[in-house]
Amino acid sequence: MHFELGRRVKQWLLNSQQYLVRRLDSSVRFRILLSFFVAYTALLALQSLEQYLHNSHSCQSPLSCWVTHFVSVISVDHLEGFSILVVAILYLLESRDRKKRKHYEAWQIIDQAAATKVTTSYARLHALQDLNEDGISLGCLDVSQADLRGINLRGADLREATLRGANLKNANLSNANLANADFNEANLTDSNLSGANLKGVYLCGANLARANLRGANLTKSNLSKANLEQAQLEGVKLEDANLAQTNFRNANLTRANLQGARLRETHRGGADFKGANLSGVTMPDGKVNL
């Protein structure tokens, strides 16, 4: 019983502390007072050091020196420096709130573009890039039919995102997490998807001509009727992928792993499968490669 009571008291104290910290953190007055305190302390320390170096033997006692320095900081001569220091500290204290506002405004731009069904929006493009640069997840994002040509979303988290029919020509999606995303009918011509996680992704009818997919993971992805002409698929993982009616003309699939993939009715003229793993692959004639 005593143990349970002690645990509850401890939890109450912890919750109270967290609540107080949140209230103080959101209080403008507290931040201003904190800025003044830090600025004053910094100026006092500098003033004390300066007085000590120049007049180390003029004080009768350490206490009298400290009192003199404490009072001397509050002077017109120090007003400008004190003001600048306060503003600088306030700016630093407000940095987290500014970042939150920046993210909120970015999401507003993205939502407004989606609501008005605007295809081309440079504001949305930059908003997406800014969010990604700040490490914000873009998972489950819906930007179907959007014009995102040349966008840089390197390393982005776009799991289960919907980019159906989007124009991503020359986009940089290298090392991005695109697992289970919907890229059906999307234009990914000349895009960079190297090292990306495309496991379970939908790319039916997508245009990936000349795309860079080196080292990408396309396990269990659906690439039926996709155009991968001249695409770089070196070392790519395509285990159990649906590649029915896919265009692989002049594509580089050296050392690719296609184990268990379905290649029925694919177009492979000029494709390089040197060193590729084709075990268990359903070939264009319907036979399984042993």
From TrEMBL:
Segments spanning the bilayer are 32-49, 69-93
Q: Which domain of life is it from?
A: Bacteria
SUPFAM superfamilies xrefs = Pentapeptide repeat-like
Q: What is this protein called?
A: Pentapeptide repeat-containing protein
Task: Kindly name one Pfam family recorded for this protein.
Answer: Pentapeptide
- Cite the entry's keywords alphabetically: Membrane, Repeat, Transmembrane, Transmembrane helix
- This protein's species is Symploca sp. SIO1C4
Cross-referenced InterPro entries: 5peptide_repeat
